[in-house]
Automatic annotation (TrEMBL):
Pfam families: LacAB_rpiB
Keyword vocabulary terms for this entry: Isomerase
Protein name per its UniProtKB record: Ribose 5-phosphate isomerase B
Enzyme class: isomerase
Gene Ontology biological process: carbohydrate metabolic process
Entry's family note: Belongs to the LacAB/RpiB family.
Residue numbers binding D-ribulose 5-phosphate: 10-11, 68-72, 101, 111, 134, 138
Active site: 67, 100
A GO term, aspect molecular function: ribose-5-phosphate isomerase activity
Record organism: Glacieibacterium frigidum
Organism superkingdom: Bacteria
Entry EC number(s): 5.3.1.6
InterPro entries attached to this UniProt entry: RpiB, RpiB_LacA_LacB, RpiB_LacA_LacB_sf
Gene that encodes the chain: rpiB
């Protein structure tokens, strides 16, 4: 299924983001490249916010954010209401982020994982649906629902 994927990275994640963007385009996805566009030092929060705002605002179905460790850009992305960014280091983590947490942004650490693991994470993330059921109320709480609202 073709979808729009927002991508953003800081300087440490630039090369991995560029590779993933090319592969996503080759697979038929529309890529919303939010930068950075080179290896000059930039601030990861700017790019975490950008990808999260694109996803939470409906400009993209999912997002992928990359920095050196993945930690900082994940923290930034999760500050945006409606964004559920999950830092993943394996395909299993990416699949669980979708099935149980309805994560809408995959976060990768370019200095932590290799290209093949990154590809596996992207594949699992984009090809796994949210399971719903008992997880729906929990995800609603992530978005600010009360216990009573989540049960309804």
């Amino acid at each position: 299924m073709t979808q729009t994927i927002a991508l953003a990275a800081d300087h440490a994640g630039f090369a991995l983001k560029a590779l993933l963007a090319d592969e996503l385009r080759a697979a038929g996805h529309d890529v919303l490249d939010l930068g950075t566009h080179g290896e000059a030092s930039v601030d990861y929060p700017d790019y975490g916010f950008a990808v999260a705002q694109a996803v939470a605002g409906g400009r993209a179905a999912h997002g992928i954010a990359v920095c050196g460790s993945g930690i900082g850009i994940a923290i930034a992305a999760n500050r945006v209401p409606g964004a559920r960014a999950a830092l993943c280091t394996s395909g299993l983590m990416a699949r669980m982020a979708r099935t149980h947490n309805d994560a809408n942004i995959l976060v990768l650490g370019s200095r932590i994982i290799g290209v093949e693991v990154a590809r596996d994470c992207v594949h699992e993330f984009l090809n796994t649906a949210f399971e719903g059921g008992r997880h729906a109320g929990r995800v609603a709480k992530l978005d600010g629902a009360t216990l009573k609202e989540a049960a309804e």
